[in-house]
Amino acid sequence: MPNHNREIILLGLAPNTDKVQGMWSNGYPVHQGETESSINFATLYAHERGIVPDQELLRQEWLNFISTLLTAGFHLHIVPFPEALNRPDSLYHDAVFIRDSGMIFRGIWIKGRFSVKDRIYEGEFHTKLIESKLGKTVVTLPDGAFLEGGDINYLETCAGSYYFGGLSRSNRIGHDFVRKIIRPDHYILLESEGYHLDTVFTPVVNVDNCLTALIVTANMLTDTSMHKLQELDINVIEVSQIDSSGIAGELGDYAVNALIAPGVMVNSSYFQTAGVEEQLQELGIQRFVTPLTSFRYAGGSVHCLTNEIY
Question: Which of 196, 244, 198, 195 is nearest to 219 (CA)?
Fold first, then answer.
């Protein structure tokens, strides 16, 4: 397919051991970055309710997720979960969300820098894996830069490349550094209440690899950011917070946290906002849905669990 790569890297699940009884077996850690709005609402929700994932359900959901990605036409590189992160003294991470640690672009791995201190070690181990398994050259950020991959949505389309960057757990210094490397044709930085941009935003690309729509949780983006998107003259589809992280004590389904390819969208739920699925159908988007209940409580979904190899 022109200008788009369906090659994906993802991390396997942490194995059960004598000392660690699976993913998030001690409950979901609550993480917050540099700003108040960067708190992960889903983990706070799970923490307050004492939710611990059912390991059998979690594993079955992950296997179904892998099967769905293959059915949707993605080529997968599944790398083992780092053993050093699967210890009783090292469980305050979300390492299975390989998206967040950085970005692969051609021969390099742009290593992110977490504003959440408990997640710093994830970036170190992901970097070692990608360097050794894929042979990528590691590029590190300058001083003062923060960058988490969940705040990046990069597309190569029929009308050039687009870089959408979130300013929640990442900052302008981090995004500007990436801009100099990849030189996108369109560079748009957005401010939102979501702890990562991919919890409130997803682009939609049609079968001809043209950017045809932007799905956004509008009331979680600033007015200035919404204006930037509207200036692109691309159809903006607004969704309710229930398709994002949720509202008023009700956890959302994170449907907006989607993995896309030309004419394809994979996410963990159909959109509940009226009319959205019909619009996607009119745009000719083939839909693949794979429930990820256990991962939703960690605030992550399909986009978080994957990372493109451009």
Answer: 244
